[in-house]
Amino acid sequence: MHVFEMVLGIVIVTAIAKIISNFMQYKTTNNESMSGMDERLQKLEDLEERIKTLETIITDQNYDLDQKIKSL
């Protein structure tokens, strides 16, 4: 085996190892960010439910009557 072939082999093995390392790091980071997305999605669903409740309270006719009584 000549020196050039040996250097080329080392460069190829190093490049492949770096690609595999980057892929594994990306996969780990992607999984962590997805767990954060689940938490954000749950929080968004909770907020939507609260908004629906507030809309129901505000659009209720008794709410308007209560506001008129308080303003007196």
Radius of gyration: 30 Å
Strand count, sense and barrel status of the largest sheet are: none
The total tally of domains equals 1
The assigned structural class equals mainly alpha
Helicity level: over 70%
Strand content: under 5%
Low-confidence stretches are none
The run of helices and strands is: HH
Structural summary, described in words:
- This protein has 72 residues and is mostly helical.
- It has one domain.
- Helix content is 94%, strand content 0%.
- It has 2 helices and no strands.
- The chain has helices spanning 3-59, 61-71.
- The chain is rod-shaped, with a radius of gyration of 30 Å.
- The model has no long low-confidence stretch (mean pLDDT 83).
Brief write-up:
Helices cover 94% and strands 0% of the residues.
Question: Which features would summarize this protein structure in a list?
Answer:
2 helices; 72 residues; mainly alpha
Give the SSE layout.
Layout lengths: L2 H57 L1 H11 L1
